[in-house]
Protein 1
Amino acid sequence: MPKKTFFNLPIEKKQKITNALIKHFAYKPYNQVDIEDIAKECKVAKGSMYQYFENKKDMYFYAINEAIRTSLDMIENYNFEDISLFEYVERSFELTWNFYLKNPSAYILLEKAAFYDDSPYKEEVQELLMSKTKALLSNIILKNQKSGFIRDDISSELILIFLEEATWSLKKFLIELAKTKGIKVSDLSKEYIAKISKEYMELIKNGISRV
């Protein structure tokens, strides 16, 4: 959590520091992120960075939280009493794509934190990400059950577990696929992503039974 001195900075300066932190932690291994480099980029003294944050870990978690906040901002206008979970999941692929195009550093930082975090705080980072995802999905499920979009004879907790694991596994699959091809996830063809999205939705709606 940043110190009060950080929140008292002018908006432009806070945003410049925030963007720099996200960028450096996204594109460099954690142990190679140099706070002095970030300070120079933001045109502040290195010592000032420690007036704004407790330590490097504090800066890292702040950067991740800001990346999460940015990603969640893209879905804040959805009313999940009017839109089904299925429709949201279908749209989420497009939302993820748009998030990458508009905020590449934030996207890469979250991808890194979720699947190949190299910091000494890997378990804490993944717990943070999972808690944010869980809170979002839980809210969607409850509202969808209330509106009759999904079954309410199955516990919301069980639905949450299923969707959470399935969604994370699918994202991991796409990331690993891109890595084997030596490309970024965003470079996978839209046609392929559309096909995977359709098949994924079929599994969620109908399962794998032929009956």
Note: The longest helix spans residues 122-147.
Protein 2
Amino acid sequence: MYRRLPHGPNGMSREDVARNQRARMYGGMIEAVHERGYPHTTVAHVIALAGVSRRAFYEQFANKEACFLATYDIVVARARKLVLDAWTRERGWANRLHGACKALLEDFAEQPKGPRLVLVDSLGIGPKARERMTLASTTFERVVTMAFQADPSGAEISPLTVRAIVAGIRHVAFTRMYEHREEELHTLTDELLDWIESYRSPVARRLTVSGLVKPDLVEPEPAAFLASDDRRSRALGALVHLTLDERYSELSDPQIAQFAGISTEGFHKLFPDKEACFLAVLDEFVAEAMEAVKSSIERASSWPEAVHLAVGALVEYFASHEALSRLAFIEIFDVGPGMIGRMTRSIEAFTILLDELGPEARRGPLVTREAITGAIWGIVSAYSAHDRVRQLPHLVDQLTFLVLAPYVGAKSAMETVEATRRSLPSDY
């Protein structure tokens, strides 16, 4: 499939030959994973597609995972270069932003195999792939920051908003890659830029760290669905404890059953396997969080106020259930491809509820709810990865602004945040 070097002397240095072989192995990995998925891809598949020997492979990579991670890095680097090249080709800030976004989305639509490896196929591989995802996000957060620093209007966008933008675009692209609808990305440039534009306002300057509400530290609470002493609750609790202690991939059904004090047969009467048990934990976690959100909304006198109260209730629940938040936002990556569709469910239920109760989005209506889902999920995931979940209540104002601005405008969103601040006790 890939252009190979001619047999015999070719005038190339040893380094050039190695570089050529490495590039072909990257291509072989992309193609093999596209055809079979990562778990079923072998070194033999990669070298057959790349046209290199097994010896040549192991001279450059320790194993299949090392080749996959190097391929991941190359795909990310290529995407970054694509964006920066598109930026420099245009004149005028708005044209540059549009050109860069369009180039990225169109490349995803036209050549989806590499982006799919990064956005979809890397999930479930393990901690090293998860670290790569964090590094890739950081790479593009720097690109977005650079872009907005060049904004001639001087509008400020906070680092949290930058993270939200990158996570939102990633989620929109991920969903279409996962569902094989990548051709839709051709048409979403203007929608995504319109969504981003809703945060580009002079009023956003008032949303500074020094002005944020600083709530008391949230105390840990036991989850209600784990409080019972029945066999199901014990099995769910055993999976949570063992996953956090030993990693999900290392667990077996008998281990979970033994920790829960039940037989393996008894465990299988409750759940077909450990993945079904993990899914049940996630479902209970989402249901309990949403109960807290719905209770908070009942006190609101308007939809914007409901959003603020709902955001507060959601992050407070996450903060008070730190172990479960880590399970839902970090350990979920190790569960495997079967979990991919559930990745953002913990936030999606929240954004669907608010979207159904509120007005139609003014900015980027075709992607707003989806982008906000990805934005919040990305922020909570980042805080979970750095053991900062209990700090999430400090972000209530900024997260409220992120949700409200595309629906009611930046000015009204900021007014809601400030009005809620004024209604709090003076020593809050």
Note: Residues 207-423 form a domain with the Tetracycline Repressor; domain 2 fold (CATH 1.10.357.10).
